[in-house]
Amino acid sequence: MLELKQVRWHRQGYGFTLAMPNLIFRSGITLLAGSNGSGKTSLLQLLATAAFPSEGMIRYGDMTTDRHLPAIRASIGFVPTGLELYEDMTCEKILRYLAELKGETSRIEHERLLETFHLNEFRKRKIKSLAHGVRQRIALAQAWIGSPSYIFLDEPLNAMDSLERLRFIRYLSAYARDRVVIVSTHELNEWDAWAGRILWLRNGRPGFHGTTEEWCRSLPLSIWEGAVTAADYESLPPASVLQVRPEGATLSVRIIAGEQPGPLFKRQPPTLEDAYFIRSRAV
Ligand SMILES: Nc1ncnc2c1ncn2[C@@H]1O[C@H](COP(=O)(O)OP(=O)(O)OP(=O)(O)O)[C@@H](O)[C@H]1O
What we know:
alpha/beta; Rossmann fold; 2 domains; binds adenosine-5'-triphosphate; P-loop_NTPase; ATP binding; AAA+_ATPase; ABC_Transporter_VariousFunc
């Protein structure tokens, strides 16, 4: 269990304050959602102990940073965005080196990571010769050294192809059964089947924290789908349209509206992203 108690972090120079009331994260995947600059990366930095709050405290099970920092750090796996890897090392060497830095001296650890993250075929390749998606998998693999209890990932699927994204999400979902995993993402729907909870940040404060089911419930507006002519489409408020695709002579549209926009429109269950648009009133 991970617990935040009245955490505040004033970021000097940018006039930004992250302000978290009491929050508890249990095992499973929690998605961290929010617009650019809402504080997702700032929160992950605090959780990963890369920075410390100005006020309040974070508790990792029975441990707190003032008394147990090395043990807490040993139990954390963190993947920030834009993690730089030593370009001249091979894939195998960097994982062995980082494993040794973390006190994992057995050869088994990095072999396990190469296997788990499908990196075996790249083991002798230098980092600088690898595609961005493969480098990202190495960045992910290093976070799993020592099988940490707390995993914090900042937009982890960046640059990965569709197959690897799905493989990784499945792996993460199984791993999160008895570990706390927090993932920042702008692609909520991709995680729908796998994440249990969402924390939505607005201007450095939680706008919502609860299950994915609760996130999609009690929304002030609804999602509607229906077919319209090209002329009718022009009359729809552009900001309410989420999707449009040709369907024979008409256009099939998915829109946000308070009331049924026309007799041919049917109400649809909102996806995680629909709920995000509705809640943030970005439309
Ligand atoms: N190095 C820094 N020093 C001081 N303040 C910073 C720094 N980096 C970011 N900030 C401030 O913190 C705010 C929150 O940024 P943060 O990167 O945490 O948001 P985010 O939700 O992760 O955004 P994005 O979706 O664009 O990654 C920014 O608007 C900025 O004002």
